[in-house]
């Protein structure tokens, strides 16, 4: 059903020839952006890196080099490795606090009151 709806809305995207034209356009667009940027470093957000890493993992290193992407295949693969490592670091299972749990303020106040009310118990 989804395919049928998509083919009604975008019938030109499902032919092989039109897909090749879109790929050709995107390659040209990447080349223009690369020329425009030159040697400048591109700063990405974590979400942008994640999206590129997921899509780049599907492609082989050779394919990534062929496309002339803005980032090297090694960089994209490193982002994917970090993404997987962060997923499995079990940080959501770790306790948020360290050491003994905090003593409630009411207990502290009561202890101090008892100590000050009874000087013979050893509290100065």
From TrEMBL:
Source organism, top-level taxon: Bacteria
Name the UniProt record assigns to this protein: Transposase
Organism the protein comes from: Novipirellula herctigrandis
């Amino acid at each position: 059903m989804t395919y049928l709806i998509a083919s009604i809305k975008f019938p030109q995207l499902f032919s092989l020839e039109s897909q090749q034209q879109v790929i050709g356009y995107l390659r040209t667009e990447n080349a223009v952006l690369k020329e425009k940027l030159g040697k400048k470093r591109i700063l990405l957000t974590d979400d942008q890196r994640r999206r590129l890493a997921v899509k780049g993992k599907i492609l082989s290193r050779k394919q990534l080099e062929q496309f002339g992407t803005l980032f090297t295949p090694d960089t994209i693969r490193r982002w994917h490795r970090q993404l997987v490592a962060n997923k499995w670091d079990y940080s959501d299972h770790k306790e948020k606090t360290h050491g003994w749990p905090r003593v409630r303020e009411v207990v502290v106040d009561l202890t101090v009151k008892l100590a000050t009310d009874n000087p013979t118990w050893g509290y100065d």
